[in-house]
Amino acid sequence: MRRNIVAGNWKMNLKFSQADELISEIAQELSEYDLTDVDIILCPPFPYLELASDASESSDFFVGSQNVSSFEKGAYTGEISAKMLASLQVDYCIVGHSERRKYFLETNKDVAEKVNRLLEENITPIVCVGESLEEREQGEYFSVIKTQITEGLFHLHSDKIEQIIIAYEPVWAIGTGKTATAEQAQEIHSFIRGLIAEHYNKKIADNISILYGGSCNAENATELFAMPDVDGGLIGGASLKAQDFVTIANSF
Ligand code: PEP
User: Fold this and answer.
1) Selected catalytic residue, list 32, 169, 198, 219
2) How far apart are the CA of 179 and the centre of ligand 1, in A?
3) Domain 4-249 in CATH 3.20.20.70
4) pTM for the whole thing?
C-alpha cells in the first residue's frame, strides 16, 4: 500500500551506547508529534537491531536492516539471513544500496535474490536504484534505472510487487550534500512509476511508495516530498541527528 515513509539508514556508524541513545532521542522526539500518516523506519547496523526492535514496541517506528544474505541458510560465514531478521521483528530491509553495489559488487541478480528471501519472510524490501554522475552526464540515467528495476524486480508476480518500496538514490547525491532538485527527483519517480504501470498496471504502480534519497535533510525535505510521485525519503547523514530526522518525518 502506498504510504508516506521516512527511513533512516545509519550505515556503519555509532557504538552500542550511542545507538541506544539515538533510539531513545528519536522515540522521545516522535512522541511529541502526531505522525500517523507517516511510516518511520530506523535501519541501524545489524548488532543494534534487537535494541531498536525492543524500543519499537513502545514507540512509533519500525525497524529495518541495511542488508540481508541472498542465501537462505547454511555455511555462509558472516552472512545474516532473512529468517534471522524476521526472528528479530525486523519489518523492512534496504537492498541494492549503491554502496553495496560499489564496494561489495552487488548485482541486479543479487538484488532479485535478496528481494525473494525477504518476501519469503514477509519483510518489506526497500530497493535502491540510481545512476552515477557519469551516467547522468552521458544521458544514460533512464536506461540504467530501467535495467536496475527490470532485473531486480520484474521477476515478481503482481501480488508481490505491491509489497516493495523503491528508493531512487542518485549516486552523485549520496553523502555529497548535492541534492537532486525536486524536479529531477519527480522526473525519475514518475519514470519509475511508469515502468511499473507498463509491466504490471497503473493501479499497482499508483500503490507503490517511491522514496527519494541523496542528501535529503531538514531544509530540503518539504520541497522534495511535495512532488506528486515522491512518497518520502531514505535518509543517510541526517538520520543520525534525532531532531533533524524527526523534522524530515514532519515534512509532508
Ligand atoms: C543513503 O545512503 O541512503 C543516503 C541517502 O545518504 P545521505 O542522506 O547521507 O546522502
Assistant:
1) 169
2) 10
3) yes
4) 0.98
